[in-house]
Every structure is written in structure tokens, then in C-alpha cells.
Design goal:
Layout lengths: L4 H35 L4 H24 L8 H29 L8 H27 L7 H6 L6 H7 L7 H8 L1
Helix pairs in contact: 1-2, 1-4, 2-3, 3-4
């Protein structure tokens, strides 16, 4: 067994979760930029904060009920409070990048909209990496793993796709789940 095998196994296990997180994140990022663009007249930093509050709430429910749906559930208040708190840190990365662009480099809402959105994009990437780590570590607790749950772990986030495409065909994910029951 090569030394890369444990890393590859870990990445295979993490990939479905990262894909679901990424899909939700991509949709929310587009919405974030749309809200920021529309709200730019109130000020770039205020628009960034408004966009973050709206998209955080949507992202919480999407991640809770899709990406991390098989993780242990704790109180909604606890999860959302932690989720929102970590999003505030992510917002600091995003809004901080905007503030640096605006106040540090003199970019203006009237003349540098695209540059401000580009700087925001850098903050989004940094904030997203932080959020992914924080959600996995603190917000959505990992389920206890026994023998057969470990086999299904790779299917956690992708199960929604499989349910849409599999119709009880022999060898399909849906059929495998029925066989294990």
C-alpha cells in the first residue's frame, strides 16, 4: 500500500461533501454578488453585510438538510448560532477585503464596481475555505461510525443525486441501500 493511499481515501470520503458544499456555495455566491451589486448605492461595505446576512440563512438550511443531512443533529438554535458566528468571521474576510480595496486602495462604488467585486471575490475564497473547515469541525457534528455506516459515508452528500437518477435498477445506489436494509 503506497503512502498516498490514506490521503486518497480521505479525499474520496471528503469529495461528495465538498461537492454539495460547493454547489450550495456557488448558488449563494451568485446571489451574494447580485445582492451586493443591487445594494451598492447604500455603500459597498453595507451591501456586503446585507448580502452576507441573506445568503447565510439560505446556506444554513441548504447545508443542514443536504450537505450534512446524515450528521448528528443538535438544537437548531445551537447550530444556527454557530453557523452564523462562523459566517461573521467569513464576512470579516469578505468585507475586510472590500474595505481594504475601498479605503486602502481608494476604489469607489461609482467608478470601480468591478474592481470592488473582484476584491470581494478574493475575500469570498478565503472565507469559504474557513467556513468549510468550521462547519465540519464545530457546527454539523459527525455521526457515530459503525461498520456499515463507514461504507455509506462516501454516498452521504451524493445520495440526493443518486435518488434522482436511480430507479431500483440492479446495482443502483437505491437498490444497494435496499439490499443492506
Amino acid at each position: 500500500m503506497s503512502s498516498a493511499s490514506p490521503l486518497i481515501a480521505k479525499l474520496r470520503h471528503l469529495a461528495p461533501e465538498a461537492i454539495a458544499f460547493g454547489i450550495i456555495g456557488a448558488g449563494n455566491t451568485l446571489l451574494y454578488f447580485l445582492i451586493t451589486w443591487v445594494a451598492m448605492p447604500i455603500g459597498a461595505v453595507k451591501a456586503s453585510v446585507l448580502a452576507t446576512v441573506v445568503t447565510t440563512t439560505l446556506a444554513y438550511f441548504a447545508n443542514r438538510y443536504w450537505t450534512y443531512r446524515n450528521h448528528a443533529r443538535t438544537a437548531l438554535r445551537r447550530e444556527y448560532t454557530l453557523f452564523f458566528g462562523f459566517n461573521l468571521v467569513g464576512m470579516a474576510f469578505q468585507s475586510g477585503a472590500v474595505a481594504i480595496g475601498k479605503y486602502g486602495f481608494g476604489l469607489t462604488e461609482q467608478h470601480d464596481e468591478f474592481a470592488l467585486l473582484g476584491v470581494t471575490g478574493i475575500g469570498v475564497v478565503i472565507g469559504t475555505l474557513f467556513r468549510f473547515w468550521a462547519y465540519r469541525t464545530f457546527v454539523f457534528l459527525k455521526p457515530p461510525v459503525d461498520g456499515h455506516e463507514a461504507e455509506l459515508a462516501d454516498l452521504d452528500a451524493m445520495a440526493g443525486f443518486a435518488e434522482l437518477s436511480a430507479e431500483d435498477e440492479p446495482g443502483s445506489v437505491a437498490q444497494l441501500d435496499l439490499d443492506r436494509a
